[in-house]
Amino acid sequence: MTNLRLNAIEVSQQRSKEKLTSKKYSEFFGENSFGLSDMKQTLAPAIYEKVVAAIENGEKVSQETAEAVAAVLKQWALDKGATHCTHWFQPLTGSAAEKHDSFFDAHKGIEKFSGETLLQQEPDASSFPNGGIRSTNMARGYTVWDPSSPAFIVDETLCIPTVFVSYTGETLDYKAPLLKTVDAVSNAAADVAKYFDENVTKVSASLGCEQEYFVIDKAFYAARPDLYMTGRTLFGAKPPKGQQLDDHYFGSIAPRVFEFMKDFEARALALGIPVSTRHNEVAPGQFEVAPVYEEINVGVDHNLLMMDVMQKCADEHDLKVLLHEKPFAGLNGSGKHNNWSLITDTGRNLFKPENSLYFLTFLVNTLKAVHNRADVLRASIASVGNDHRLGANEAPPAIISVFLGSTLTAFLDEVEATGIISLDDSDSTYVDLGINKIPAMKLDNTDRNRTSPFAFTGNKFEFRAVGSTANCGTPMTVLNTIMAEQLQNFKTEVDALIAQGADKEAAIKDVLVRYITETKAIRFEGDGYSQEWVEEAERRGLSNVKDTPNALDFFVTPESIEMFSKMGIFSEKEIVARHDVWSEIYATKLTIETEVMNEIAINKVIPAAARYMKQLSDTAKGMKEVGVDASGIVTTITELSAAVTQVKDHATAMAAELENVLAIEDVSEQAKALCKNVKGLHHDAIREAVDKLELLVDDAEWPLPKYSEMLFLK
């Protein structure tokens, strides 16, 4: 029988890189994207102002306006060679959805694209995850144009970013709730900012997503059923060399990967995605791409689009991008660090550090928001993939805490101890390195704590716990919501003190002093990877929910339902539906992993081990016949047999338990049972035995590409 692994090794070694020529990015940035700046150049001023009013003030887009926009969009797209159009939306599957319709009207023999088509279309809502909101006999749903996010062209198709809602008005996607929070946090933040600057009328949440990923040759991907069925390797022995030398991080990028990166970045930039940074990550075969920050809604759209472009581009380079949070056990997993900030329409970053009450107000209110709603923030990053990453000694734990840095922490500790907020002007700190020709080094106001799930990093907060496959819409929806709620509460408290006769500044300080004391438990400056922190967090009363099914329950507590409803983000029906959808997605993915694990173990691993044991048995028999000691070989056969028995026994028990668990009707309880009774009792045991067999079985017999073969691209 042909060994797919050995074929994959041979194919990968014959690959050659194709060197691409580069143009200046400024020559083509955004050429395949059509946003407000393009509309301003092509629309009549009155029409353009109506589009801006729709974006800024939520005013309804008239049919006349839609027809004018559709006309210029169609002409732009046709000039670019587009033949089709689609409403591009984000159902709760986690990836984008699209249905391509031709511009060409065969009956009239012309290309058409109407304002009606731009504004609204109708996919089958019952065919997407909806938590019972829609069904086959009540299937109608709508996609509706989001004018605040640029249209773009991919593969000769004009893509129109849209929201996705049901016939009865419930949101069925990631975008619509995020847009609601954009308004909520803007209004709440602007109201508080007016204490310091009356000119502020709007505050925009911004986002920059640092996307981590692995790259392997696609021949290895094709030879690993676990990779193409689940996104991660379910088996794989630890290679002799992994990341222990720290020689991959920021190292020279392998030529094949470098050419892929250049190609991918050019495509992304043409789409208006402002990618800026590329580098090797810690684990071999792991990399990162990071854009500059954008308005949060556009930033989420661009991250989702970027992941799609990466995967398509890699395939053309005979590579595969692995976005799973933990594709390789024992190596660093991949995250998607969400860099979040708030910026006023007067140009001020509200998190830019300075010795002012203005800055302190928004910093402390962020602390308070995270402290009060840590559990639902934890739920926002829950997924079957991220469970493998969180707390795995290269990612933040499942405990939500905030890192501020020594300077800010010392200041807040002093406020807590004295009850006094004393602000003064101080110069930046410089350190003389004592090296000729090297200038003095300017210190940032915070250190960088890679172990913190939610870290202040100078002028923004970095939500590091988000998983690499995640649609950022959910964590950013939750973060915006809890911040908007907290700022509203803060303003209510300050205004009440002012109404009682307090000076405005004194009232603000009084409330902030109390918040600083109340939020002490959530502040942590130490090593979030350590067991000591787990124990300390428990003493502080912080939650540490390690698995997704239980973390998702935080979405549907009475407190969370009340918050989302009060803030106008989700109705109770909508958030309960999402809880059901995400529980079902977890259960389905874990079921697939279980069945793939069983199939590989029974159909590939055990037969390979059996063939090798037969070879060893024949060898041992021959050695005994000529009077040679065969005890070493017999010992190996015994070890192989024990490992095979462990695989077979657990695979059999796991299959039986899976059948029992899938009979549970409540999807949340089913997910919890899968996590505890299937994954918890059998996955690690089967993997342990299979990984041992990989080290024992003859290399020529082993059917699955090994870590050392996949991870070190040249």
Description:
With about 725 residues, the protein is an alpha+beta fold. The protein folds into three domains: about 30-175, Glutamine synthetase, N-terminal domain (Ubiquitin-like (UB roll), Roll); about 180-570, Creatine Kinase, Chain A, domain 2; about 585-710, Four Helix Bundle (Hemerythrin (Met), subunit A) (Up-down Bundle). Helix content is about 50%, strand content about 10%. The protein is built from 23 helices and 20 strands. The strands form four sheets. Strands 10, 11, 12, 13, 14, 15, 16, 19 and 20 form a nine-stranded mixed beta sheet that branches. Strands 1, 2, 3, 6, 7, 8 and 9 form a seven-stranded mixed beta sheet that branches. It has a two-stranded antiparallel ribbon with strand order 4-5. The longest helix has about 55 residues, at about 570-625.
Q: Segments where pLDDT lies below 50 for 5+ residues? A: none
Measure the end-to-end span. Answer: 29 Å
Q: Structural class of the helix and strand makeup?
A: alpha+beta
Full CATH superfamily name of the largest domain: Glutamine synthetase/guanido kinase, catalytic domain
Radius of gyration: 28 Å
| Count of distinct strands | 20
Number of domains: 3
If classified by CATH, what would the architecture of the largest domain be? 2-Layer Sandwich
Q: Tell me about the largest β-sheet.
A: 9 strands, mixed
- Report mean pLDDT, rounded to a whole number: 93
CATH-assigned fold name of the largest domain? Creatine Kinase, Chain A, domain 2
Mass-distribution shape: globular
- Estimate percent helicity: 40-55%
The portion of residues forming beta strands comes to 5-15%
The CATH class designation of the largest domain is Alpha Beta
Q: How many helices?
A: 23
